[in-house]
Amino acid sequence: LPSLPVPCSMHLIQVDSVQRWMEDLKLMTDCECMCILQSKPISTEKDEQSELILSSQHSTCDNLQLLLKRAWIISTELSRIAQKLEKGRWQRVHSMTVRVNCHVRSMINKYNNCSRSSSEDMHQLEKLLIDKCSEFTAFTERCLQTEDEEILKSMKSCVNETLTTVAQYFGQLIELVLTHEAQNLLRQTELSGSLLVTESAISGLLSLAQEGAHLCRIIAKEGGVVALFKICRQDCFRCLYPQTLRTLASICCVEEGMHQLDKVDGILCLADILTDNSHSEATHAEAAAVIAQITSPHLTFTQHLSSFLENMEEIVTALVKLCQEASSGEVFLLASAALANITFFDTMACEILLQLNAVKILLAACSDKRIVDTPYSRDQVVTILANMSVLDQCTSEIIQGNGVQLLMEMLFEKSSSANPAEAAACERVQQKSAVTLARLSRDPEVADVAVKLSCIPRLIKLCRSPAERNNSDSVLVACLAALRRLAAMSPDGLEDADFQQLVKPRLVDSFLLCTNMEESFV
């Protein structure tokens, strides 16, 4: 390209050009070498069937992961280019543009070498993207050859426009590639009678689904839920049920997945699996995971719930049995999570649980540290107890099973690590145990047991000491509510100062008082 005139000597221009070339050379040669080496065949055998099975087994998931990783790198680089462009750092913009150009070519070469087939649309988009990347690189190189601010200012808008086009083409190509991969994997599940190929295809779908909601939507739109439930209805694929159900649980986090589940009577299929005692515990646990996913209180789409209610009694019965017979903490967690979610949207579920002696079963499980071994499991149990505690009949069940003692212990729930998710689970356990105590203490017998177990001093400690509740406002509100309920039933259990500050004022005033109790030494 002809150089634009710059106020420098020829010698300096040549030195700067060589330095730039040396800086960019490593990026270009690394990527190009990688493309050439990866395209070299290792074997010369032409056994296509063997090649299909082996590549399905060993490379499909790896190739998808590499593709997604490279796509993430390119996407990140494009964002960084936009930031550097905004600051006018042209040297960095150009070197990063060269890097993106190399990454794009490498990604396309790698994908075409690994993919058995690709559409004409994909080839056209690849060519558009490569041409636009080359244009982008040449454009930024020309920008380096001028120091005239007015010229750079006029060129900046053109560079921005080119960057936007590159990003659009790149996004369209990735969408097309992922759709193509999903179609290939689904085709394998439908056309292959081979257990090995079907297992590999399901593994690939699970790998895609775990990359996020957007990938789940692509799989769902391409008929993924229909194909997977078809597998779950064939006895010859029984050994693949756990993996298939795990994939379904991932896909059904999006509305498109739910729509398909409803169309193929997926809930009826899940009910059949859960109630069939010939299935393994692993299969039952993964079916419970799907139930937990589709009944999540956080979902905004609920069109599937009408068919769920029709099968709720047998599903709840099967889940309670799974909790009772769980051989591990993971199985119990999945089954109890499904039950906890179910209790949120219909009180009939709580009545069914009462009839099935679920309170006794859950309380017994909590005494087995091998089964209820994490705050996450205790969170599910206390959620069920909190939702069941609105029923008057639940009170006697909880008293008989030493449930008040368990709730008291849960008020001491503390995280054993710095894991934020675990700390949040501990907060939920404290909050829900306080809520359950507040609800149950409308019964004088429960309130009496709670007072004897020293619940009042613990609730006061949680209110007055932010560190005890991990500075959680939701725990504070629940504890204040429980304390006021117990104080109404047993006013002699509080000192005057506690009564004046935590019980007598309006709840909001007590809340504000407790949130300002941390001393400042600044």
Distance N to C terminus = 63 Å
What structural category arises from helix and sheet content?
mainly alpha
Number of helices: 27
Percent of sequence in beta strands: under 5%
Pattern of helices and strands:
HHHHHHHHHHHHHHHHHHHHHHHHHHH
Total number of beta strands: 0
The CATH topology of the largest domain is given as Four Helix Bundle (Hemerythrin (Met), subunit A)
Give the total of domains. Answer: 4
Secondary structure blueprint with pairings:
Layout: H1 10-38, H2 48-58, H3 60-86, H4 90-114, H5 120-144, H6 149-191, H7 195-209, H8 213-221, H9 224-231, H10 241-251, H11 255-263, H12 266-275, H13 281-294, H14 305-310, H15 312-325, H16 329-345, H17 347-355, H18 358-366, H19 375-388, H20 394-400, H21 403-410, H22 420-440, H23 444-452, H24 455-464, H25 473-489, H26 496-503, H27 507-515
Helix pairs in contact: 1-4, 2-7, 3-4, 3-6, 3-7, 4-5, 5-6, 6-7, 6-9, 7-10, 8-11, 9-10, 9-11, 10-13, 12-13, 12-15, 13-16, 15-16, 16-17, 16-19, 19-22, 21-22, 22-25, 24-25, 25-27
